[in-house]
Amino acid sequence: MQWTSHAWCRAGVLATAFAATLLCAPPAFAWGPLGHRIVARLAEAQLTPRAWAEAQQLLALRGAHHLADIAVWADDLRDTDPALFQRTKRMHFVNFHSGKCVYDPPRDCRNGECVVAVIEKYSAILADRSNSPATRAEALAFVVHFVGDIHQPLHADYRHDAGGNDFQVRWHGRGTNLHHVWDSLMLDSTHLSVAQFTDQLAAQRTRIAIGGTPARWAEESCRIDRDDGVYPRSHFIDQTYVERELPIAEQRLRQAGARLAELLNRDLASG
Ligand code: ADE
Ligand code: ZN
Ligand code: ZN
Question: Which CATH architecture has domain 22-267?
Answer without folding.
Answer: Orthogonal Bundle (1.10)
